[in-house]
Design a protein that fits this description.
The chain is α+β, with helices and mostly antiparallel strands. It has 3 domains: 88 residues; 118 residues, no CATH class; 243 residues, no CATH class. The chain is 54% helix and 11% strand. The protein is built from 16 helices and 13 strands. The strands form 5 sheets. A 5-stranded mixed sheet has the order 7-6-3-10-11. Strands 1-2 form a two-stranded antiparallel sheet. It is flat. The N and C termini lie far apart (84 Å).
């Protein structure tokens, strides 16, 4: 019995050294209890009482082991949280050091050391850079080079510059070095960063700008100018019956879905700059929930950005519910959009697949929805492949990144409507292979509520509408 007590005390001492002073005080009470029970057991002659003492000893031993395991697990969790916090602080300090480096060291021309005549010091700015003819050099690029650098034709770039010059709001001329009109270089910088991903050292070398803050302000101003100039013109919901019927007929030709579907909803996440919660040792990742409504031409008809949960078209009255219905099998059917079945509820205006199909028309309806999802996947693939900043970024603050995401969606519509140029090679790369444009599992499904109260899709007639659509698809395939 003394040997067993010594082993238990040694184990308690070894584990208490790992757990800290507070946990050590909680654990050291067990050896004294074991010693007291051992003394009682040694002097007790009644076998029945000795058996009870053994049972109490065993119960204390089990409690002691549980306490050791529980406290060790808590200590490990605190240790992991502390390591995560320190890692986040280290990465932020590393980024600050990189920023300081860019601000203190001028970016020199890679073709050689510039002479005194090639340098000009602007006393109104803290930047000293070579005078370049960057925009004039771009004019000498071939069409393939323009596509590789900006993911658009040169004619489109010139047209964008002309439109943004009239309506855009850019930084002052002293913010950029050189004699060229500043807005052209700012547009080039913004589109280059959007297309290739934000790489401060490369952008600073090419555009001869050493301040990271200047680069971020230029990108923000370009994004705001794009939204202001082209947002209302290229990002709008279809309202006329002719346009709605055209979209529905195109979806019908591709999937046999009755021509009342007016779009496919895509929901995915875009990373933003990591933020550290000052009230906790845990770090939090800022994530933008991008929600887009895609039509038959892979054009975004509606874009909304959220940070907590998707909310597009979840209001009681919205652009979809206000549309007039269409007759299907002599029955009026509300126009609807196809939604992901994981996060969105079932309503007359929000249709998604059957979770557990049984009847033939249920399988046919799911198959038609899968065909429509191709439009969503292709549109998002082009968006993320053409504007790589949406996938490669993690160093732009949340508010600026929201403007960049919306500007990229507007530019997507501008290019798809005018030139439709897309290189499949843009989709290949470490950040684009096998990408699924869905949300992570940490988001909960959206509750089917109206006015804060549970809403029944059976009472709404959404189930009957989906059944009617499935039967219409099934009858066309027979």
């Amino acid at each position: 019995m003394d040997v067993e007590e010594e082993n238990i005390e040694s184990d308690a001492s070894h584990n208490s050294n790992e757990l800290g002073d507070t946990q050590r005080l909680h654990i050291t009470k067990y050896p004294s209890q074991f010693r007291a029970l051992a003394n009682k057991f040694a002097h007790e002659k009644n076998l029945k009482d000795r058996r009870k003492l053994l049972e109490m000893y065993g119960n204390h031993l089990i409690s002691f082991k549980r306490s050791i395991l529980l406290n060790r697990k808590r200590w490990q969790q605190r240790y992991l949280r502390r390591q995560s916090f320190l890692r986040s602080v280290f990465m932020q300090q590393l980024l600050e050091l990189e920023t300081t480096f860019l601000e203190l060291i001028p970016i020199l021309n890679l073709n050689g050391m510039p002479s005194k005549n090639d340098l000009r010091i602007n006393h109104s700015s803290d930047v000293c850079t070579p005078i370049t003819r960057f925009y004039k050099d771009l004019l000498k690029l071939e069409s393939d080079d323009w596509l590789a650098k900006f993911h658009m034709q040169k004619s489109t770039f010139d047209w964008l510059c002309g439109q943004l010059k009239e309506n855009g709001q850019f930084l002052g001329k002293n913010s950029l070095m050189g004699k060229e009109p500043p807005y052209e270089r700012q547009v080039a910088l913004g589109l280059y960063a959007f297309a290739t991903g934000i790489k401060y050292l490369e952008i600073a070398r090419i555009f001869k700008i050493t301040l990271r803050t200047t680069i971020c302000r230029i990108m923000k101003s370009v994004a705001e100018s794009i939204i202001k100039t082209f947002g209302d013109q290229y990002l709008y919901m279809p309202t006329s019956e002719e346009e709605l019927d055209e979209i529905g007929e195109a979806f019908y030709s591709a999937s046999k879905m009755p021509p009342v579907a007016i779009g496919v909803l895509g929901v995915c996440e875009v990373p933003a700059k990591q933020q550290v919660n000052s009230n906790s040792i845990e770090s939090e990742n800022s994530t933008i929930i991008l929600q887009v409504l895609v039509d038959n031409n892979m054009i975004f008809r509606k874009v909304k950005l959220d940070t907590n949960q998707p909310s597009l078209f979840l209001e009681e009255t919205n652009e979809i519910t206000n549309l007039s219905p269409k007759l299907i099998k002599n029955q009026p059917v509300s126009r609807f959009i196809v939604t992901p079945d994981t996060y969105y509820p079932l309503r007359k205006s929000l249709m998604h697949k059957y979770h557990d199909p049984v009847e033939p028309h249920e399988y046919d309806f799911n198959e038609a929805v899968d065909h429509l999802f191709i439009f969503r996947d292709r549109a998002l693939q082009r968006l993320f492949a053409r504007w790589r900043i949406l996938k490669c970024n993690g160093d732009i603050d949340l508010r600026t990144m929201e403007k960049v995401v919306l500007a990229c969606c507007v530019l997507h519509n501008v290019i798809e409507r005018n030139e439709k140029t897309f290189n499949e090679q843009w989709s290949k790369g470490p950040h684009s292979d096998n990408t699924k444009y869905t949300m992570s599992s940490r988001f909960k499904p959206v509750l089917n509520e109206l006015h804060g109260k549970p809403h029944s899709w059976k009472a709404d007639g959404a189930s009957e509408t989906r059944k009617l659509l499935g039967q219409a698809i099934y009858s066309t395939e027979m």
